Amino acid sequence: AQSVTQLGSHVSVSEGALVLLRCNYSSSVPPYLFWYVQYPNQGLQLLLKYTSAATLVKGINGFEAEFKKSETSFHLTKPSAHMSDAAEYFCAVSGTYKYIFGTGTRLKVLA
Amino acid sequence: DAGVTQSPTHLIKTRGQQVTLRCSPISGHKSVSWYQQVLGQGPQFIFQYYEKEERGRGNFPDRFSARQFPNYSSELNVNALLLGDSALYLCASSWGGDEQFFGPGTRLTVL
User: Fold this and answer.
1) pLDDT by residue (tens digit) across A27-69?
2) CB contact under 8 A, A103 and B100
3) What backbone torsions phi and psi does residue B77 show, to the nearest 5 degrees?
4) B54 to chain A nearest CA, in Å?
5) Which of A97, A101, A105 to mutate to test the interface with B (most CBs of B within 10 A)?
6) Residue A83 DSSP label
7) Could you give phi then psi for residue A27, rounded to 5 degrees?
8) CA gap A62, A84 in Å, rounded
9) Would you place residue B1 in the very low, low, confident or very high pLDDT band (cuts 50, 70, 90)?
């Protein structure tokens, strides 16, 4: 069975600092992995996805993630945080007919 | 192109009532999935329908039911509402259940 663990329910960074949001997965088959962002009172917006092509995946808004099979990780990074990045971020793995989501990480960006 | 649409945007019900939520998929998509997102948590899978047939069901009670129509739109019904059913209900569509595109959600409040 597939599962996702997001380490850190809250992360605070200063504006301009590196953003690192952690995601570890468990899957018995090669996984498809996703990062979504959710702004207050809105739905989910896809940031990026890994579908077994390149291990370094670039997404929207300057975000990227690296698939590391040996570490079963798919951490999300952004070199320089912007105030507009403040939101909730969800990592997800594709299971049978469904996505399995992590519990989310709320990113706070400090001026 | 129009994305996934959901109606209504917000809904307030009282305990014991019944509710119907609606979803229109992206044109050409034949699969619709439903997720429940309780405040502070990641989305949880409820159902997936493909070509009007239920293809997957999450760990939800029988009070939750859904159907898909010939035009691939879908309804989620919840009977005998409980306070704990208060959540954001997300609909996602896909060609065949793989990459899913999410709608903005319906916010249900049960009083």
Assistant:
1) 878 889 999 999 988 889 999 999 877 889 999 999 999 999 9
2) no
3) -115, 135
4) 10
5) A97
6) G
7) -155, 140
8) 12
9) low
Q: pLDDT at position B108, please?
A: 98
Asked if residue B27 has pLDDT above 90, the reply is: yes
Could you tell me which of A45, A48, A44, A108 has the C-alpha nearest to residue A82?
A108
Which one of B44, B55, B90 has the shortest CB-CB distance to A44?
Answer: B90
Share of residues in chain A with pLDDT > 70 (%): 100
Q: From the candidates B21, B47, B57, B88, which should be mutated to test the interface with A, based on the most A CB atoms within 10 A?
A: B88
Strand A64-68 with A73-78, pairing: antiparallel
β-strand B87-94 against B101-102: which pairing, if any?
A: antiparallel
pLDDT above 60: residue A76: yes
Nearest CB to B42 within list A42, A43, A104: A104
B45 contacts in A (CB within 8 Å)?
98-100
Q: What is the mean pLDDT of residues A23-30?
A: 88
Q: What is the pLDDT of residue B97?
A: 57
Neighbouring CB atoms inside 10 A of B34's CB total 26
DSSP SS3 for A57: strand
Adjacent-strand bridge partners of A109: A13
Q: Which residues of A touch B38 (CB under 8 A)?
A: none
- For residue A53, count CB atoms less than 10 angstroms from its CB and return exposed for 0-12, middle for 13-18, buried for 19 or more: exposed
